[in-house]
Specification:
Elements lengths: L22 H4 L2 H16 L4 E3 L9 E5 L19 E22 L6 E16 L5 E7 H12 L16 E3 H16 L1
Antiparallel strand pairs: 1-2, 2-3, 3-4, 4-5, 4-6
Bound molecules: zinc ion (ZN).
């Protein structure tokens, strides 16, 4: 397995709508190898998700791994989805509840930056899994945010484009110093 290079904003691939994958392609050994390489790359980078366009492959494939504890995303520490690892091809998102829900997001393609994004709080995702079978997920709360962020990459959208108040953009160090302490003390 090889670690892949994660491309950053400014690279044109991140702005493109990625191509859907057919069943044969999804079931191929090339795709299985790509998924394995993407996992390794994501874990090395301490990310919780990675989309194929982020490794300069413009195809509708994304992986999401919700770890038991995440240093980058303290909000996710208490989340226990039924599965921890998701491999998603050709997703279709339907909004089930548009009530906005905000989270300070980050992205491996925008290193060192956090931004406050509001997204619909409940969604349905229809997609194909690694066996090219139709699957469906219904997600709310922070998982809904994580999946929407990741799947946005397949449609050429970066979280920065979804920030409504551009004052709510921060470097990670300043986020840790000024924003996180307030946020987490408010919760208690
Ligand atoms: Zn991202």
């Amino acid at each position: 397995m090889a670690k892949l290079e994660i491309i950053r904003i400014g690279h044109p691939t991140l702005n493109k709508v990625a191509k859907k994958m057919n069943k044969e392609e999804i079931l191929s050994s090339e795709t299985a190898n790509l998924v394995a390489d993407m996992y390794e790359t994501m874990q090395t980078a301490q990310g919780i998700g990675l989309a194929a366009p982020q490794v300069n492959i413009s195809k509708q494939l994304a992986i999401i791994h919700i770890p038991e504890s995440s240093k980058r995303y303290k909000d996710l520490e208490n989340l226990k989805p039924e599965q921890e690892k998701f491999v998603i091809f050709n997703p279709l998102i339907t909004i089930l509840d548009p009530t906005p829900q905000g989270m300070w997001e980050g992205c491996l393609s925008v290193p060192g930056i956090r931004g406050f994004v509001e997204r619909p709080q409940k969604i349905k995702i229809d997609y194909l899994n690694t066996e090219a079978k139709n699957c469906q997920l219904i997600l709310d709360g922070l998982l809904a945010t994580v999946f929407q962020h990741e799947l946005d990459h397949l449609f050429g959208v970066i979280f920065l484009q979804r920030i409504q108040n551009t004052k709510l953009i921060s470097f990670s160090e300043e986020y840790d110093k000024f924003i996180a302490p307030i946020k987490f003390s408010e919760k208690e």
